[in-house]
Amino acid sequence: MDLTATLDAPCGAADLFAVVGELDSYPRWLDIVPRVDPQADGAWLVDLRGRLGPLARSKRLRMVRAEFDPGSRVTFRREELDGRNHSPWVLTAEVSEFAGGSRLTMSLHYGGALFGPVL
User: Fold this and answer.
1) What single string gives the DSSP state of each residue in 9-20?
2) How many CB atoms lie within 10 A of CB 64?
3) End-to-end Cα distance, the chain
4) pLDDT digits (tens, 9 = 90+) for 76-115
5) What is the pTM of this model?
6) CB atoms within 10 A of CB 58
C-alpha cells in the first residue's frame, strides 16, 4: 500500500520541517499516531492506531530516521531488532517553499496486509 498526501501551509519551510522532521511531534497533529517514545539509541517506538467503523487496530513499530536532508526531506523506516522478518513501513516527508507558504508532501509505504484498509 502506498499513500501520498499534500498540505499547503501559510508558514516558512523551516517552520514546517521543524514539525515533521522529528517523530516526537507526530501525536500532536497526526491522528493515527497516538504515542511516540524516543529511545536511547536514536530510534522511536511508534504506536499506530487505525479505525474502520467498529473495527480498530493498533501496532507498535520501532522506527529510525533513514534519510535526513535538513529543511527539505526526512525518511523514517521500520527497523526492528528482534531478528524476525517484518513488513516494511517507510514514511517520507518532503517540504518545499513557495511564495506565501510551504508545501508538505507525506508518503507512506506499507508492505504488509491487514492494516491497509484501516489507514
Assistant:
1) ESS-HHHHHHHH
2) 15
3) 10
4) 999 999 989 888 999 999 999 999 999 999 999 988 765 5
5) 0.86
6) 14
